[in-house]
Amino acid sequence: MGAYYVYLVSSLPALNFSSPPPFREKDFFLKCQGLIPEKDIEILRGACDTFYNLESQPKIEGLNRWTKFELSLRNELVRARASRKKIDPLLFVRQPDESEAYASHVAMAAYRCTSLLEGEKILDQARWDFLDFLSFGHYFDFDFLLSYVLKLKILERWDKIERADKESLFSQTIAY
């Protein structure tokens, strides 16, 4: 994609992993209306809403790299969890199975974490770092917007976790 979206990108606030999202994902797409092609908006929505199948997704380098990383990370988590339960991981591994050393390291660190919440934070921090890597050198183009909206999705998830009524959830869990 050779298009540049200078006005849209320069109007977006910076994102920080330890801060709440400046706005919601749906507001991001409202900001995009009229500033970028509808086809690009649909690709960004698809990247947020589904876990793309590599064969069916558009041939966009940043999106393909993100999908391969996410797939590799999930497959490494499958391997770690399957080994503990003594189950064949190949029953659950998604294809193509291209193991990455970084994804393997992150998955094991998250899996070994005693706190589920901290384990999830390790995974999302790795995703954030990978998105930083993907967007490096892309300042006003589609790859930047892709990284931005995926980071926004991560921030929304953590904002929802932080705002959850933990006492009520704990009481509901104990009641079962």
Structural features, described:
65% of the residues lie in helices and 0% in strands. The protein is mainly α and 176 residues long. It has one domain.
Which bin fits the share of residues in helices?
55-70%
Tally the structural domains: 1
The residue ranges in which pLDDT falls below 50 over 5 or more consecutive positions are none
Our count of helices gives 8
Which band does the percent of strand residues land in?
under 5%
- Radius of gyration of CA atoms, rounded to a whole number: 18 Å
Number of strands: 0
Largest sheet: none
Task: Give a concise summary.
This protein has helices at 6-11, 25-32, 38-49, 61-85, 101-112, 116-135, 142-163, 166-175. By secondary structure, it is mostly helical.
Keywords:
mainly alpha; 176 residues
